[in-house]
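tool=predict chain=A
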Amino acid sequence: MNGKTPLKDALKRYFGFDGFKQNQEAIIRSLLEGQDVFVLMPTGGGKSLCYQLPALMMDGLAIVISPLIALMKNQVDTIRNVCETDSVAHFLNSSLTKAAIKVVHEDILTGKTKLLYVAPESMTKEENIAFLKKTKISFYAIDEAHCISEWGHDFRPEYRKIRPIINEIGRAPVIALTATATDKVRTDIKKSLGIVNAVEYKSSFNRPNLYYEVRAKTKDAVKDIICFIKQHHGKSGIIYCLSRRNVEELTQVLQANEIKAKAYHAGLDPATRSQTQDDFLMERIDIIVATIAFGMGIDKPDVRFVIHYDIPKSLEGYYQETGRAGRDGGEGLCIAFYSEKDLKKLEKFMEGKPVAEQDIGRQLLRETASYAETSVCRRKVLLHYFGENYDKDNCGNCDNCLNPKTKVEAKDLLCKVIEVIIATKEDFKEDYIKDILIGRATDEVCAHHHDDIEPFGCGDETSERVWYAVIHQALIAGYLQKDIDNYGVLKVTAEGKNFLKKPESFTITEDEEFDEPEADPIQAGADCAVDPALYQMLVDLRKRMSKELDIPPYVIFQDQSLEAMATYYPQTTDELQNIPGVGAGKAKRYGDEFCKLIRRHCEENDIESNEGVRIRTIPNKSKIKLNIIHGIDRKVALDDIAVTNGIEFDELLDEIEAIVWSGTKINIDYFIDDYLDEDQVADIYQYFKESETDNLDDAIDELGADYTEEEIRLVRIKFISEMAN
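tool=predict ok
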């Protein structure tokens, strides 16, 4: 180390800054002194400087283990820009040619290179280990260290091999850095890296400039997103989806609505991903639609909003992804769409994984659901999850604080919760405690004989949702805590035990319900449409045509299609195809009468077509839909079509329903005939012919005792295809 160079002089010389942020200076000094260091610092807090500056100051080569090629390239470019030569920093990964690797080796052996970025997979290669043994290592930096932990949101098994490889290459100080880690994850990281005695630095997780909001994910979610983006025209934003399919489809819809957006996911080739990233950084596009792979280490300070179209699998993931917004301290809007259906789908994806992994996944999902459903200050819930106390009850910058709910007294309920936890020896998780409170004698409860304890069923008059709210808000208040070693197990704190002895006021707000509300379809459509009078006229026209054609009204156009017509005033069959649920087939078969009515209404009321706010849909014949149609044409079994396209069977039925609703005729009789006998098909078919609605829940209520949901959906597809198309 060059002892003559004061730390702040080096900071000014290399990076042009006059001072350090938060704990940066103390972290760097600890590393320069040869100590192992653990850094917990939120996104945008300046983690990379904590290893870049000491690497430039110390003798030898600093090895930075980083999970993403895009992150490496970005950071290597940053270091090269502040130094005189490109040889000061390199990366070593699968994207390099043999000639490029030779240059990297030569620069390292001649001492020109101070920082080497390596993917964990590259670290495990014997030839790389053998080469790195030849050079002096100043220290090892483990970036995105949460990847080490099975409890982290982005677990990478290769990270578990890092410590043995460090021992083989040569011991040197280790600095582990992460933006998101609970106490459980933090302990796991230090143990795996063999740095249990590391000096630990923890910065505040509070980002006051970020606004947090959770919205119910209804069928209009895409429309909401488009309207939101148009309201923030020209601003940079990231939209996160869990699947590549959702990324591709949402990107196409945004592009169809003249929004400058591109997709980013692991299925795209490296050159495309790199170009998309550069387009976003250079502001040639406004929006990135991405899976969670995007954004790690991307230093774009003016991302103004982050939207989660799909709820993430963990709060760590959510926090890190929302952390991309407002890194310059300016506006940062974080909007998440949430539905219980999505949550159940994520739980279903865990099936088939090892039991321990399923248990961890469900615990992480439960935390995410609790955050989404809570009516407490979202900032308070997030900070509590990461072990930080937020003293204010109202942050003034989240949906719950801007629209506070009425609090109710829950002193007696909390006492019951504490009594049950103590009676069960503080050895169980919240679902188990809730089962005892409401008196549910599950197999597990009976196996432990807890159906015999005195408090069993003491809260049977209170709903499960209220019990969850009591438990979650008692955790935030400090009366309960979750065990670090056995994550999820509830313990009563000293404050909780004192509360039980001397109860005082404890108020809660009930959690939000995210089930889609039931409503009269005509009334709901009239309320949602811009022009209720036109909506009612369209309903009347549909009713008249249904009588003439002897088919149910919903077969012609669904309510949401009429609602959109009464909002955007399509006056030709071409314009009608921009309406959700209306394909070329439906527009041609039924559209003329509806367009005539809309044109007449517009002329009589001096209304112009609402082009400015129209939400254009994309053609329904996307690649996956074409694959499905071709498969059905060849009479391939539907479950085989699902497997071939990498989707679940219920998702396949969603796709097929969208195809037939848009006006494309298909024939799945070959599959139905193997699935149901003739009388069963006739029974379900007759129900839909006589019903005033195609609503699946209504059909299940009526037919569910005799038929499964899949059977009903299959015959409904047959009915719509034959009657409407």
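The longest strand covers residues 210-216. Confidence is low (pLDDT under 50) at residues 516-527.
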